Each structure stands twice: as structure tokens, then as C-alpha cells.
Amino acid sequence: MLRPHLYSDKQSKLTLFASDLPPVKPSAIALGCLFTQVSSVAVLAPLFGDTYHRAKAADSKEEFFKSRETATAAASWGSSVLGSALQTYGVGALINATGTLSYKGAAYLGSIIFMASAGPGVCFSSSCNRKQS
Known about the structure:
mainly alpha, 81% helix, 0% strand
């Protein structure tokens, strides 16, 4: 639970904020990131495949690394890794905060997370389909 604090300097503010975050094992975050990255390969594969073919066709490595496509691919991959780490931390913190210890409880919690994240898109797409008919 977040509580208001009186801070005397920036260092104590950062220390108190970090102590308010629920603990999640780094190995759980790493495993979640790995799983998310492997499952998102299908989405990012065309971008990286195209970038790989351009690297093969480039005259030199320096020319390729200075290209805009390389920067776009690197930014996409970096934001994907950061996003998956934050998402994994959030799910792990939610599991720890709710005290979920069983597979059944984790399945219920996962279903709720999935409905909360996918529900708005499903509702939006179904309402758009009705308007077009």
C-alpha cells in the first residue's frame, strides 16, 4: 500500500519508493521475458527478416549500422524487451500480492488479466463490425 511520505532529499524518495514495490524474483522476470520474446517472434519476424536481408545486401557493416532500418529494428526490439520485462514484473507482483499459490488460482488470475487486456479490443472490433453492416 502506498503511503504519503515526507522526503528530505531525492535519495530517500527513491529508496522509499523502491521499498513500496512488491518483490518479484529476477529469475521469474527473466523466464517471463524469454517466454514473451519467443512468442512475439512471429510478430517481429518480418521486420527482422527484412533487416537481415538488407544487411546482407549492404556494401559494408558501417553503412548498414548507420541506416534508419537498423535503428528502427533496434528500437523495436529494445522496447519489446523492456515492455515484456515490465509486463512480467506486473504479473509476478500481482501473483505475489494476491497470494496465489495454486495452478488453479494462477489460471483464474491469468484469465482475468487476459480479459482485461483483450476485452476492450474485442468490444471495439465488434462494435466497428456492427456499424459497417
